[in-house]
Amino acid sequence: MTQLDLSALALPESITTERHGDVLIVRLSRAHKRNALDDATVLGFERLFADPPEWARAAVLDADGDHFCAGLDLAELSERSTVGGLHHSRMWHRAFERIERGRIPVVAVLRGAVIGGGLELASACHVRVAEPSAYFALPEGQRGLFVGGGASVRVPRLVGVHRMADMMLTGRVYGAEEGHRVGFSQYLVEDGAGHDTALELAHKMAGVSPVTTYAVIQALPRIGEADPDQGYFIESLMAAVAGGSDEAKSLMREFLDGRGARINGEGPR
């Protein structure tokens, strides 16, 4: 791996980056705080994913230590006015949207605590790989609070409104296996295998045509939220744009000539 100089982005010490081919490795580096998020870290994510390195075609979001992210750093829980709280929540929304609807797909490596703001961060990523130690919770409800970093929109898309309501009202915690079954992660791997699996997936994503990547990140979520008739129309537009690209035509010629990749039923689980 190659250390990067992204000094122009003025990233905080809590975010470190490396290059692995055309994959950007991003790490939360606050293990002493179970990688809890402070404002500097959230704003750092916003700057990084708003303008990732030009060579980056995909990213892996990992974390130092035994936990992905234990949510909001309690040191950030200062008293705010209602308007101040509103602006703080919107800042988190803006930052995590840079991940969800940015230029490159992001694979998250989940272990240990994935709770509160950590679950909000994970749910903004496109693919989630969980290790057996991962557990998922939204403790805000037990603290007289409500989620503010996008969970009320993103988490129900993963597991449904009813499951999120249960978590908020009862404090229910999902372990890695049950969490995988209900949809918190797409992959459940052996202990210690999360990073390598995420890196393998990210390299596969990096090989996908940029126009297809754009369609999956930008168009697909909007199609899912649209009226079906509008969704079909958006799909047709994106299919025409993608199919008309030089790269798509070249790949199809390779496939028809017997030189392209074929589906063999194997791959990560």
Summarize the structure.
By secondary structure, the chain is of the alpha/beta class.
Keyword list:
10 strands, alpha/beta, Lyase 2-enoyl-coa Hydratase, Chain  A, domain 2, 2-enoyl-CoA Hydratase, Chain A, domain 1, 269 residues, 2 domains, 7-stranded mixed sheet, 3-stranded mixed sheet
Task: Give a written overview of the molecule.
- The protein is an alpha/beta fold and 269 residues long.
- The chain has two domains: 2-206, 2-enoyl-CoA Hydratase, Chain A, domain 1; 210-256, Lyase 2-enoyl-coa Hydratase, Chain  A, domain 2, CATH 1.10.12.
- Helix content is 45%, strand content 14%.
- It has ten helices and ten strands.
- The protein has helices spanning 39-50, 82-100, 117-124, 151-159, 161-170, 176-182, 194-206, 210-225, 228-243, 246-256; strands at residues 2-3, 15-20, 23-28, 58-63, 106-110, 113-115, 127-130, 135-137, 174-175, 187-188.
- A seven-stranded mixed β-sheet has the order 1-2-3-4-5-7-10, sandwiched between helices. A three-stranded mixed β-sheet has the order 6-8-9.
- α2 runs parallel beside α3 (117-124), α3 crosses α4 (151-159) and α4 packs across α5.
- It is globular, with a radius of gyration of 19 Å.
- It starts with a strand and ends in a 13-residue tail after the last helix.
Major β-sheet, in short?
7 strands, mixed
Mean pLDDT comes to 91
Please tell me what the overall shape is: globular
CATH class value of the largest domain: Alpha Beta
The total strand number stands at 10
Rounded radius of gyration (Å): 19 Å
Domain count: the total is 2
| SS strand fraction | 5-15%
**Oligomer class:** single chain
The secondary structure category is alpha/beta
